[in-house]
Amino acid sequence: MTKITLFSQIISKLDRNIFNKLVQEKQTDKHQKGYNSWTHLVSMLFCQFAKSQSVRDISNGLRSATGNLNHLGIIKAPSKSSVSYQNKHRDWTLFREYYYKLLSHLSGQAGFKQTKFRIKSKIFLLDSSTISLCLSLFDWARYKTAKGAVKMHTLLDYDGNLPAYVNITNGKTADNKGAYDVPLLKGSVIVADRFYNDFPLLNVWDSNGVFFVIRHKENIQFETVREKELPDNRHEHILKDEVIHLTGTQAKKKYPKNLRRVAVWDEKNEQTIEIITNQMSWTANTISELYKSRWQIEIFFREIKQLLHIKSFIGTSENAVMIQIWTALITILVLKMLRQIAKYGWQLSNLVAFIRLNLFVKIDLQKWLDQPFEDPPTTQEKVIQGVLF
Asked: Is 136 helix (H, G, I), strand (E, B) or coil?
């Protein structure tokens, strides 16, 4: 039986040295007394793990762990006014930078890797998700006449299904416009839906040595340069594989090179999916499977919205919203790392629910991850028969 809580053991997985270096660089503890950046991070992670609905819940929840706070690296539980004030004023970019540093650190430990594809290219999935906000409370997040929103433009790493890059903009920013800031890794492949069928954007990617697999729009104008031979008796869902050249006046100026077009029959939805790519050597089935893998980013958005506290916010300022979103991303990173190192086959929803129920229970984290439903050992009582005579 361990002497520290489950939440304390989870927090110990975070590299505090990396965090302290970022704090020094950004001077986020300057003129701060008591409620420092680390206490702020722990408080917001508690908000995510416990799904606290207000700053009062955060303050009271941490106070209920009296005597265990030293294992979290904090002196005392913050007051609700301290949490509220620092959410409004502490630089939110601290938590963004820490997410990226922690992603690199924990990915090496957990060894996120999927082996479905035999290609050497790094695979990224690109999409965006809109988070609705009440315009009367979040007046800075203008989206529609009576509705506010922010949009998460997310580049998801296929290995581990974790964001390699997130660009948070106002709700009005179009998907393709939010993608221009995405960092490009030469030799990688980006998989996206038709909203990213923007030929100037695709030309930028191609010029930087990045492959793309994009569902094209129905009104695309092209002429066939040559048809590629389809495999015999295999992958019958592949309807067409051809090299094309854009014929639209503006389109061919924006993307003058040849493209590859693959048409695939989607039996589940009974529709034809038409894909364009600048990768000419992979098989048509590989292109088809790459586009099919794009569904993983939809699952990621569903996970963070359903399992974490990201659909409602404990602060109304832009800074507070940014901090809550980035601490939610840190939380999902830690959760997926825990699932990766566990011997038991956890569903993420079950793992979140079980941790939420046992945050301040003193059990060994790794043993609990490996054998969550193991019955406690039974000890047989030694019965010593008395001597009658």
From this structure: coil
Cβ 251 vs Cβ 258: under 8 Å:
no
Dist. CA 40–CA 26, nearest whole Å: 15
Task: At 154, list the tokens.
Answer: 């997310």
This prediction has a pTM of 0.90
Q: What amino acid occupies position 367?
A: K
Query: For residue 321, what are the contacts with CB-CB under 8 A and spacing of at least 6?
Result: 133, 138, 141, 150, 313, 315
Please say whether the beta carbons of 62 and 83 come within 8 A: no
How far is 187 from 211, CA to CA, in rounded Å? 7
Total structural domains within the chain: 2
Q: How far apart are CA 162 and CA 303, in angstroms?
A: 11
What letter does residue 70 receive in the DSSP assignment? G
- 318-343 pLDDT tens trace: 999 999 999 999 999 999 999 999 99
Q: What's the full length of the chain, in residues?
A: 389
Domain end residue (candidates: 243, 270, 300): 300
Q: Is 167 inside any structural domain?
A: yes
Cβ–Cβ under 8 Å, residues 183 and 190: no
* Domain with 281 in it: 112-300
